[in-house]
Predict the 3D structure of the following.
Amino acid sequence: MPNAPSNDTVRRLQALIERETGAPLGASVQAEMAAILGGGPAAARPVAPEVAQVAQREVTIVLADLRGFTALSATRPAGEVVMALNRCLARLSEVVYRYQGTIDKFTGESIMVLFGAPQSHADDVERALVCAVEMQLAMRDLNLEHLRERLPQVYLGIGINTGTVVAGRFGSDLFSQYTVIGEEVNLASRIEAFSLRGQILMSETTYQRCGSLVSATAPMQVYVKGKAEPVAMRELVAIPARKLKVPRQEFRRSHRAETHVPALCQLVQGDDVQPRIIHGMIVDVSYHGLQMELPERIEPGNVLQMEFSLALVEHRAVGVFARIVKIQAVENHWVAGLEFTELDDVSRQKVQMFVQLLVASR
């Protein structure tokens, strides 16, 4: 029987893999690598008991998504884009391992991290939150490097949730992976979708576990896909005891979502609504306004009365008034930005719900 590999051999291979791929191996994969080097068959590989068993565990899930690689891939060679992406993921991985999190997976430009599985600590929630802030700080420093290299800025949006999941090794004899599944994982993904660049959002459950340690905003009620009732989430602002502050990069009054909704418009002159119908197409909507394609130029400052249907939330908005803030020519039509000036309470709630559901479904 071949001799078992030394710890030094495993460490050297780990360093080699990390240098090549930009990300270190997880603990369970390291155990499998050691078993393979020792010559054991796949079925006989030693797996830690907590990895081998499928069980319910409370975990804190950190889901981080990189924004900005679309612009990078449009202007740079593929090899350069991959190198930049791996550099970002490697920097984030260093932070994760510093706080003993487990990288569950890389999915495109996203990274999912677990605190509480397969190993758990009494302070897993605190570790997760500190890790998230340090990840944002790492991205801020990395963007300074991008600036010197004349590369586009890359930003991070993070969503965090704490809850009970099913954890274990899933798959077959040919391929299996330790991971977690369940509604709490889906909720973490929904929360992340709402995060702006540089922002960290967390569920109310996560906040209740650590409210005395962090500075956070009041809860926001947000509709997400798969939930009949709105979900509460908070923005993490700082962790005073650690002297950490989130370096948020983007400040907007609300989220925006692309859409394709026809609208019937009428120009308002003085106190009179003109009878002529102008057919517009809403292409982007937020809580406070929208962007619309128009067949003709209408000067900024003018007000339109609008009527449109939001099928996703089963609502037809009528008597909506919005002022044109800006307008520009695009090919054979005009694109105008408008701010709502008059919107009844029901329509306002439905517009917000519509935007939230579109954001959560991305």
Observations:
- The chain has three domains: 1-46, 48-245, 256-360.
